[in-house]
Amino acid sequence: MSSTGECFDIGxxxxxxxxxxxxxxxxxxxxxxxxxxEIDHINDSSLLKNFDTNCGSNREAGNGALMRLAPVPLxxxxxxxxxxxxxxxxxxxxxxxxxxxxxxRYYGALIAAAVRGESKEALMSPEFYDKHRQWFGKEPLHDDxxxxxxxxxxxxxxxxxxxxxxxxxxAALEAALWAFWADExxxxxxxxxxxxxxxDTDTTAxxxxxxxxxxxxxxxxxxxxxxxxxxxxFIEYLSKWIVHGGDSFSKSxx
Length: 254
Description:
By secondary structure, this protein is mainly α. It is built from 14 helices and no strands. The chain has two domains: 45 residues, no CATH class; 197 residues, ADP-ribosylation/Crystallin J1 (ADP-ribosylglycohydrolase fold, Orthogonal Bundle), CATH 1.10.4080.10.
C-alpha cells in the first residue's frame, strides 16, 4: 500500500528478493503446469511446501525486514514461540543474514510480550531474553543482537553516545530501543527522538512505533497524527482482521 498509489523508496535487498520470488514463481508454474493467473491462488499445501519463499541473500542485513515486522507477532502473540519463529521466517523472505533473522526474532518477542500485557520495565530488562529463552527454541541469538538485548541502547546521550539510526539492522534495532527506553512513556516523544537521530529516519521511527504502539496502545497515539494518516480506516480494519485471524488460527490448533 502506498500513499502515492505507486511503490517508492523500496530497498535494494527487498527489490532483488521480489524479483527472485517472481522468477521462482514463473519456474514453479512452468514445472507444475500452472497458469500465472492461478499461481497466487494455490492453497494445496502438498504443492506449496516445495516452493522456497526465502529469497533473501545471506549477505543482506538491512533494516527493511524489521520495519515491517509487527503483523507477524500480532497474529501469533497467543503462542509466543510461534510469534518468535515466524518473526524470523518473515525476515528471510528478503533478508537472509543471521543478524537480520535474530533481530526480527528478538523484536517479535518484545512485541508479543507487550501485547500479552508485560510491563515496559519487563520489556526493557537486560534479563528479558534470558527469562523468555524458551520462546527462542534451540536457536540462541547472534552475539551482536544479544548485546543489544542486554541493554547496549541504554545511553543517556543518545546520538552523542553513539546511537545511530542506520540501515544496518543491528544499529536500527539499537536506535529504536533507545528511543523506546528514553521516551518517558510518550509515543510522540519517542517517535520524535527516533526521527531526530537522522540517517534512516522513517525506518527508525517505524521500528520504534511497532513496539511502542504495542506497549502503549492505540489511545496513546497523538490524535492529530492519527487524523492525518493516509488510509486510516483501511489500516484500522486490517489491524482488526489480523487480530481476528490470529484468534481463529490459535483456536484451530489442537
